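In response to reviewer comment 3 from the previous cycle, which asked for concrete evidence that the modeling workflow produces usable outputs, we include below a single protein chain processed end to end. The sequence was submitted unchanged, and the resulting structure tokens are shown without manual editing.
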Amino acid sequence: MSDTYSVREAVVDGDREACFAVRREVFVEEQGVPQELEYDPYDATAVHVLAVRADGVPLGTGRLLHGADATGKTGGDTSVGSLGRLAVAKAARGLGIGAALVKGIEDAARERGLSAVDLHAQTHALGFYERLGYVAYGPEFPDAGMPHRAMRRAL
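The workflow returned the following structure tokens.
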């Protein structure tokens, strides 16, 4: 939590649209991910977390898949959640928002009784997640045309 922004679960009217707007800016426009890959059926059941500036401008987002939705990304373990779609608007980078979003997602995972969180990190972001306690495992793999590694952090 900061004086200039807050992080919360996206539950208020308009929150999910704000999450999608940040994802569109970062993944679709900036990184060139096809829109049909960016949005998927998991968006309907995921826990979305949103960082918003004090004046309501969305700054960042991420989501948590849990239960059956997460098992394809966690090796079938229903006690592990899957963090994904973490994005911070270009103008808001370097303010600690990404780390605050990860903490918000981990808090949501704990509230749902999960024991760990997995994620698929773009390889350029490995250091960011390592600083937050995540450990890479398995080989590098492509996702949306970019190299990724799986990572996990026990809660």
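The radius of gyration is 14 Å. We consider this sufficient to address the reviewer's concern, and the full set will be provided in the supplementary archive.
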